[in-house]
Every structure is written in structure tokens, then in C-alpha cells.
Specification:
The protein is an alpha/beta fold. Helices cover 35% and strands 15% of the residues. It has an eight-stranded mixed sheet, with helices on both faces. Helix 3 packs across helix 9.
Length: 338
């Protein structure tokens, strides 16, 4: 987070082919619960220990470590068979160096998607920033495990869950865009490039953005109640989105939602400090999921061993359930606030 800035059956096989068809019919009765269970602490941990390792050199925008990060994300989607909306093997939305106002070298967002089965023109975006702040003046690597490795691996697991559903004939009615943006730490550049310069999908067709930025730790205020997450922005543009978020949580997770930072007068101004804001300013409803800051924020000590993976699993499942509901409800949510 920025400081204040996926033949033929022989006679012998007839019975087994029939069984396969029956299984497909049974699969169509599955709900989001079945697919949410594929999001596991172990897989989140395995991915994050790679993504927030020293090999990625703190993922500073435009630098070699960040290039390793985007290739890691791309290969993950390719391994799952989740395509890019950019076509073929082009998962990168290239952003030229001059766009970064001399703050970084050329960089790229990473895009993957699952096309909607009934309303493919309507888009649900799940976003997180892929960059961090690199190496400090003492040569120590800022690994950024929570900020925002936690959000990055959460999206990868959510994408896998949606892909499992699609493979069983339960794909989302609306298109899901998995959007990993660059340059957040230096000014929300990647998300701004997507919204202001090159929206791959029309903004007017974008139903909502669920943005994930730091969801793997516990803020000191909640040390005696780990079952929480801060929500920011859910009621700013759409009362319907806010109500859906609350209902889905009560139905599936029952986590405590803390809206402290959602206050318009919050001095931290977190609403303006992560990538959801570039969607909100375009009248697109958003939810920002956040665990609060901690002593390791923007320090070399933000390492994968500090992440509470069971809690990361729960929060990731919450976001998946919410995205599932937004993607599959009959009518798109309405904007009723300005």
C-alpha cells in the first residue's frame, strides 16, 4: 500500500462415459462453498514464500525483481489454463517509462480472466498491486509479504477456485478480470493507467472492483480478536454492494467488519491510498480489504513467516464468496450514490 499516495467411448467404456456425464450433472449443483474450500492456507503459503522471497528483490517498479514477479504471476495463470484478455500469451499491459513521471522504468500490469457464461460484457474486477519498494539504503530487501504479497497470492487462489468451477460447468455468469497492477507504491500508477489510458474492458461495463491490499496480518487493535478485516469504500457508491457484502459475510464467514477507516474524516485517508480509488473516481463501486498497518509496514521485516495463513485463507474465501455473488446474481448492482 502506498504511503499517502488462470472421444470416443468403446463398448467397454460405455458405463464409465455415462458415469462421467452423471458427474457433470452433479457438479452443477455445487455452490460457492465447494469451490471456496479449494482456497487453502498451504497453497497460499507456498506461493507467498516464493513471491516474497529475496529472489524478487522487493519487486520495485520497473526493476529486475518486479519483472520476475510478473513472470511468476503469468506462469501461474498459464499453468491453470486461465487466459489473458489481451490474447495469446500476452498477459502484460505494458506501461511506458514516461508514464511514471521519472519515478520508475517501464513496467506492466498483469491481466487474466474467466469469460462470463451469460453476461460476458459485464465485468467484475479483483485487483491487487504486484509491486513493493525494493531494497533500502542499507542493502536490505523489503520483501513485502503482507504489502502486497498477501493480496497477490489471494487473487491467484481465487482465480483457481473460479477456474475449477468453470471446468465443472459452473463458470461465472459475468466475466471476472484478475488484475495485478504495478506502480502502486509510487502513486497508484498501474491502476490509473488501466482506468484512464487503456481500460481493456469498458469502464461503463465494469460492475465493481474488489481490491486486496494487505490481508495477511493482525493490527494491534485486534490482537485479541483475529477474526476481523477492515472494509473501506463498500457504501460509498452503492448501498446494494454494501448490503451484499454484509449478507455474504454473515452467510459464509461471520467475520467482524471494522469500518473505522471508511469514515470520510479518517485522517489516514486509506480510501484514497490504494488501487480501488482509480475505479471509484470513475463511479465504479469498490470494496477495499485491509488488515491495517503494523510495525513491519514498508520494512525489511515484512516477511512471509509473519503471515497468519489460516487468517489469510479465511479472508481470501470471504472475497471469493463476495465475487461469486456479484458475478452470478441476476441483475448487476446499481450505483445509487455520488
Amino acid at each position: 500500500m502506498k504511503r499517502i499516495a488462470i472421444l470416443l467411448c468403446t463398448t467397454f467404456l460405455v458405463s464409465s462415459c455415462g458415469t462421467s456425464q452423471n458427474n457433470t450433472k452433479q457438479d452443477k449443483t455445487k455452490s460457492s462453498v465447494n469451490y471456496a474450500q479449494t482456497i487453502t492456507a498451504n497453497e497460499l503459503k507456498e506461493a507467498l514464500y516464493i513471491y516474497a522471497s529475496d529472489e524478487f528483490e522487493g519487486r520495485k517498479t520497473g526493476e529486475p525483481g518486479q519483472k520476475k514477479a510478473v513472470n511468476f504471476i503469468k506462469k501461474h495463470y498459464q499453468s491453470l489454463g486461465i487466459p489473458s484478455p489481451l490474447g495469446a500469451d500476452d498477459y502484460f499491459q505494458d506501461i511506458p517509462e514516461d508514464y511514471f513521471s521519472r519515478k520508475a522504468k517501464a513496467s506492466e500490469n498483469v491481466l487474466a480472466y474467466i469469460k462470463g457464461s451469460e453476461k460476458p460484457e459485464e465485468i467484475i474486477i479483483i485487483s491487487a498491486h504486484l509491486d513493493h519498494i525494493g531494497v533500502n539504503g542499507n542493502g536490505k530487501i523489503n520483501n513485502g509479504a503482507d504489502d502486497d504479497g498477501s493480496g497477490t497470492v489471494a487473487i491467484l487462489e481465487i482465480a483457481e477456485a473460479f477456474k475449477n468451477a468453470a471446468d465443472e460447468g459452473n463458470g461465472p455468469k459475468r466475466t471476472i478480470l484478475f488484475l495485478h497492477v504495478t506502480g502502486e507504491e509510487i502513486g497508484l500508477f498501474g491502476s490509473r493507467y488501466y482506468t484512464d489510458v487503456d481500460p481493456v474492458f469498458p469502464l461503463e461495463n465494469t460492475v465493481a472492483d474488489l481490491n486486496i491490499d494487505m490481508i495477511g496480518r493482525v493490527y494491534k487493535k485486534h490482537e485479541n480478536n483475529r477474526n476481523y478485516v477492515y472494509l473501506i469504500g463498500s457504501d460509498k457508491l452503492s448501498s446494494e454492494l454494501h448490503n451484499i457484502s454484509e449478507e455474504i459475510n454473515k452467510k459464509y464467514i461471520n467475520m467482524d467488519f471494522d469500518y473505522t477507516y471508511n469514515d470520510d474524516n479518517d485522517p489516514n485517508r486509506f480510501y484514497y491510498r490504494s488501487d480501488h480509488y482509480n475505479f471509484a473516481k470513475n463511479n465504479i463501486p469498490v470494496i477495499f480489504y485491509f488488515n491495517g498497518t503494523h510495525a513491519d509496514y514498508h520494512r525489511p521485516t515484512d516477511t512471509p513467516d509473519k503471515i497468519e495463513y489460516d487468517l489469510l485463507e479465511t479472508r481470501t474465501r470471504l472475497i471469493f464468496h463476495t465475487a461469486w455473488e456479484l458475478a452470478n446474481r441476476d441483475e448487476r448492482i446499481k450505483v445509487d450514490k455520488q
